[in-house]
Amino acid sequence: MTRVTAKSDPSTATMAQPFELTQFNPAQDRSAIRNQIRALRHQLSPQQQTQAAKAAMAQMLTQLRALQPTKVGLYLTNDSELDTQPLFQALWRLNIDTYLPRLHPFNRGQLIFLHYRQGTRMFPNRYGIDEPKLDIRNLLPTEQLDLVITPLVAFDELGNRMGMGGGFYDRTLAHWQTAGKPLPIGYAHDCQAVPSLPCEHWDVPLAMIVTPSRVLRFGSETLAQG
């Protein structure tokens, strides 16, 4: 994919504070970047977290009205990530089916997605993150998802995403550009932005990033309708 400068959508901003890039040294290695951004995220107060979650949800719903998905992959919040519970509730009210990632039981490093609704039984995985009980009846092949809203540690202006280092989303979404779906959308706090990220050939660029204050698009034809 040819990387292009993001098209920001300032008209959708809902936060009073202007968007500012994190103070950042590009020479830092990946571990240092993760530590820096996670520390910034942990400094957010409960009130800031609540406000950010509501603002980001509003931004995301605006985009989803244009994209009109029926099956959405989403994640449960962990480690001071942007809270997804308000978004889950909104998607359910819109009768959009939601799916949670689960570590693949056989292919190490891959994710599968299982239908998630209120009352779904959850169990902690080896990282201590809750995931749905493995039930083939609730399994949906990843390529049948319309989009996957991904967690991340940091992102940059070209749509590059840095996760926790396990590569789970990069492997799972490696073919989205040729298949056209599922569309990967990053969901993050504004403080998780950096001017540029060190990238490897296996890193999967995002089609869109939604934060509490703005929406970044990255030139995919799939987004033309939005």
Topology, pairings included?
Layout (H helix, E strand, L loop, with lengths): L6 E2 L21 H13 L3 H22 L3 E3 L11 H9 L3 E7 L7 E6 L5 E3 L5 E3 L6 E2 L6 E4 L3 E2 L5 E2 L5 H5 L3 H4 L3 E5 L20 E3 L4 E3 L9
Helix pairs in contact: 2-3
Keywords: ATP-binding, Ligase, Magnesium, Metal-binding, Nucleotide-binding
Cofactor: Mg(2+)
Organism: Shewanella salipaludis
Architecture overview:
Pfam families: 5-FTHF_cyc-lig. This is 5-formyltetrahydrofolate cyclo-ligase. It catalyses: (6S)-5-formyl-5,6,7,8-tetrahydrofolate + ATP = (6R)-5,10-methenyltetrahydrofolate + ADP + phosphate. By secondary structure, this protein is of the alpha/beta class. The chain has a single domain, classed as Rossmann fold (3-Layer(aba) Sandwich). It has 5 helices and 13 strands. The protein has a 9-stranded mixed sheet. A hairpin with a 5-residue loop joins strand 9 and strand 10. Helix 2 runs parallel beside helix 3. The chain is globular, with a radius of gyration of 16 Å. The N terminus and C terminus are likely disordered.
Question: What does this entry show, briefly?
Answer:
With 226 residues, the protein is of the alpha/beta class. It contains five helices and 13 strands.
